[in-house]
Known about the structure:
Helix 2 packs across helix 8 and helix 8 packs antiparallel against helix 9. By secondary structure, the chain is α/β, with parallel strands linked by helices. The radius of gyration is 17 Å and the shape is globular. It has one domain: 3-Layer(aba) Sandwich (Rossmann fold), CATH 3.40.50.1010. Strands 3-2-1-4-5 form a 5-stranded parallel sheet.
Amino acid sequence: MILNKFITQPILLDASVLLVGIEKNNDENFNFEAMKTLYMEELFNNFQDILIHETVFDELDEQRKDFINTYVGKNVKIVSENNLYGQDPLYTTVFNQIANFDLFKYQRPKKKDKGDVYSLAYAAYHNIPFISARDGSIIKAVEELVSLNNVEVCGFEHILLLGYLNNEDKNLVRRYKSIYKSHCTPAINSGLIPKTFGEFIRSQTDN
């Protein structure tokens, strides 16, 4: 599996990976406790060096913050811009190129797209792989911006696969299929991954 090469190295998590299901928090099939069972516990228990940008952490609800805080100081670190903007020419250039991208048009310190822009700038500057659900803006930005040429993006579908393969309750497959369809749509529509979760499983596990 592609994830094997990321297990021991630093990886940066996008908000889209952490916020799955938040819009259905009253649905026991897709609330936070369900997400923990489906993939979050596998993600945080397997990866050894997880980074989360503080702008992303600030977007999370208290349940997710509390969960992540149990890993902080172990295999999770909350990172920041560390005053690089305006002080470090390379970081400032990278940040501005991402912020000015047509699909972001981000202006500091506005909240819209803040997590994506700060995280992508951090990943590019520090040359760290980025795990994301790859919405349309991120896919286009990585494809088109020279400043992101060195950023390796690992799709959320691989995190779903990790959860599925390590979950003994295979009756949950319908939930995995539903999340794959709802949260991996941009990557599916861009032809980056198969149309169904079943096809994706086979593409990753067949010899």
